[in-house]
């Protein structure tokens, strides 16, 4: 088995020299905190309502950092005559995860009694890892991956009897197992305080790095 492993290492080294380098792949999985709640709000009203008016209603309720992410038309069908066509604005915003319930209470008040000029409001929210936390983790993990790749490449080079050179190139990527964090709420559920939380521990992220080293005989 040992002889066979050395043969594989020498073959890998020979192939690496043919492409003038040795490629090493490393990865690391970390669990990041679910520190951000992302809300999506749908507000509706008469066709002459502007996006600014819709935003103003939410701002007056104490919600900030709002962004209009979609506009459409909708109609509620009722008997005997359908209701008039209405404009629908999709508005998004984020808050710290700890502020989830506070923001939901403000939206619930608006849903139960939509102030003029709104005629309706619905919302949902998901709790996940913020972009800032992901980037901070990346800045920490990437140097660790490079060090691990260096160690692994040095072992391969030494076993194959060649000299390991400098890093020639690096590519990186990451993957989030979003299925692990699906904390959510919707406007009908908040009345009874019902929440679904598949994992309060956070989101699992796997960081990958492919590092190419130069080689010398």
Instruction: Please outline the major beta sheet.
Output: 5 strands, antiparallel
Structural class: alpha+beta
Overall, the morphology is: elongated
Domain count: 2
Oligomer designation? single chain
Second CATH tier, the architecture of the largest domain: 2-Layer Sandwich
- How confident overall, as mean pLDDT? 82
- The counted number of beta strands is 8
CATH classification class of the largest domain: Alpha Beta
Question: Spans with pLDDT under 50 lasting ≥5 residues?
Answer: 1-10, 13-19, 179-200
What's the alpha carbon Rg, rounded to whole Å? Answer: 27 Å
Strand order of the largest sheet: 3-4-2-5-7
Helix proportion:
25-40%
Share of residues in strands: 35-45%
What is the N-to-C succession of helices and strands? HEEHEEHEHEEHE
- The name CATH uses for the topology of the largest domain is Translation Initiation Factor IF3
Number of helices: 5
Key structural traits:
disordered N terminus, alpha+beta, Alpha-Beta Plaits, 3-stranded antiparallel β-sheet, Translation Initiation Factor IF3, 217 residues, 8 strands, elongated
